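Pilot study result, target chain (345 residues):
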Amino acid sequence: MFNILKTFFGGYLGWNIGANDAANVIGPHVGSGLLSYRFCIAILVIFTFLGGALGGQQMVDDVGEVLPADEVFEEMVHWRFINIAVLVTVAAGVAVNVATFLGIPTSTSQGSIGAFVGLSVAIGLLEKGWGGFLSVPQWAVFGPMVLSWIISPFLSGTISFLIQKWGSKLFSRLVTNERRFNQVIIILLVSSGVYGSYQLGATHAGIAVAPFFRAGAFHVLPEWFGVGPRAWAAAFGGAAIALGGLTYAKKVIYSVGTKITTLDPFSAFSAVMAMSITINFFGRMGVPVSTSQAVVGAVAGVGLTRGARAVSFSKVRDIAVGWVATPLFPALISGLFYALFVQIF
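Predicted structure:
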């Protein structure tokens, strides 16, 4: 039971994911001015939880593969896996927490995976020497994730550019009545918000709970009506993300929705739909792509339909700097914490 209580450190990471990544899903909607902040938050909370509970189970396993193999942990007699799970999720959560406090829409998946890899490097060096640097971290799994971080903003930017460039023209021709136009736009915004919120839960719930699931913390929970430990873990991660969006996301939401480029309602739909398609695409391949990178690329792609001057490249630059720092900071923290605690305990 004490191990179950330790999973709340994973809840802290999930809470930070929701606080930062909620902006990626509903920031453009709020920025468009057509939907209220409270209505968008309600959509986010409900469907992020459902995405984690119903669609996040596979990602629990996929994210866990970034951590060292089980035999590495079995050889470690001085630290239990569950305590390592606490360390790595706290390191990632602190990094994301700092970015959220500063209003920077950072990459929560990068921060979390960076912490996992930093821990793996530290374990490899301390347990096996320099040879462990190559053998312990799961570089073959980590490589495709890094590649997805590079590709995702360009892919989402291209998709949003095409939707905005051609979709808006087609939409204007098909719907000429102003009242009907507004009604259809609201339906499009709500549907993209639902889709994006569900994908956020499905692709990110596993990040918060994967170390604890690998450590066996959820395996003590009973199986009811076919709902087993993996489902409990995914639902817990989805609930934590939803809570973060509800309680601490407002600053980053307005940063994404209003400071990169001006968004009208159809632009908001284009951006969120492009982001959702992108993270769904990578999620099906088992890669927890960054929603922050995807939505910033998508919002920039929308802005480019009005010319380069419509995009605040200085804001995009500041966000990009955060992307680079995000995986490095928690990697360093988790590695140093592990080295320090091994010496103490």
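One observation from the pilot: The CA atoms of residues 114 and 328 lie 6 Å apart. A full batch analysis is planned for the follow-on phase.
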